[in-house]
Sequence to fold (183 residues):
Amino acid sequence: MSTLISSLKETASSLTAIRRPWRDFLDITAVDLPSSISDATTRIAQNLTHFRLNYTIFLLLILFLSLIYHPLSILTFLVILLAWFFLYFARDRQEPVVIFGFTIDDWLVIAALIGLTIAGVVLTSVLVNVLLAIAVGSSLVILHAALRSTDDLVMDDLESPYGHVLAGGDEELDSPRGDYSNI
Fold:
């Protein structure tokens, strides 16, 4: 029981660390039109990386609002969300899931959770609501990410949407040859 509580505390602290302040997320002064398609795609990539937890919370809020007239569906999705949280997100990746003495592979856990999610959507008859909520939420997220300027964002090198390409730091990667050796 103490390991579960410590695992929950670690997950909560790591999630709190990546969530950005809502006043930065909703800053009206940072909204302007991108100068080009290239600028828009760069903004989308950077904003999706920088505000990933905020966007996830926003999408979940839209999903739950779309199910407001389906209380059984909301309860079903809360149970499924808890299953995803405990079996996938809050679990230490180094320790496998063990059920009745059998070790369960991560791919099987993911497949079972996806199957549970699909079954929950189909059995509660809210497929259209869920698809519409995801479409509307994703559209709003992409629109926000494209319109929100990234000039005021402070991003760590590890958080770059382009990975290690722009991060620098390794001498062999700073070389024009990259990390290739001579023949």
